[in-house]
Amino acid sequence: MKLKIKNKRVTIIYSIIFLIVAIICLISNYFISHTLSWSLIVLYSLLLCYLITIPALILPKKRKIICSLISLTIFIIPYFLILSCLLHNFNILKIGSLSSIITLLYLWGTYLIYKKYHTENLKGAAFELLLTASFSFTINLSISLLLSTNTFNYSNILCIIVLLIFSIACFIYDKKMK
């Protein structure tokens, strides 16, 4: 697959910017504390960001989103594992993994809804609103159970109800349009 010259330049500039930021962080951290501590977190976060976004720069138009989603799916759990090791806090792995798995399901669901219903705007919107309501409920419930605290409040419940009402309205209006 041959890249356009413009994409090559943009990719090179993009990569150089990431490299400059990484070097500045390493130098700053070393000269401030004479060791590498927080800069390792920044470096690893930059690497994750780079691995997720670089497919959008180098791949053909039709493959950008799917490849970035695949990259995020592959690298997000290892990211939380290494981050929890660097910070010596395995709650980061537990909470990060749980929330990222739920979020990945939501993102993949959104992608699949778009692929299936991109020509049927109302039906696609109805399914997306339904998915968003279930995502909101699931993430709040999961975090509440994991942290043994109540993250639900009236605004969360109201948001879910409004999303469901709009979803039903889109389904009804879509049926009437046919």
Can you tell me about this structure?
The protein has helices at residues 5-33, 38-58, 64-87, 91-117, 121-147, 154-177. The protein is an all-alpha fold. It folds into 2 domains: 1-89; 94-178, no CATH class. The longest helix has 29 residues, at 5-33. The termini are far apart.
For the record, give the distance between the C-alpha atoms at the N and C termini, rounded to a whole number. 43 Å
Strand content: under 5%
Radius of gyration: 21 Å
The number of helical elements comes to: 6
Total discrete domains: 2
Biggest β-sheet description: none
Outline the secondary-structure elements.
Blueprint: H1 5-33, H2 38-58, H3 64-87, H4 91-117, H5 121-147, H6 154-177
Helix pairs in contact: 1-2, 2-3, 3-4, 4-5, 5-6
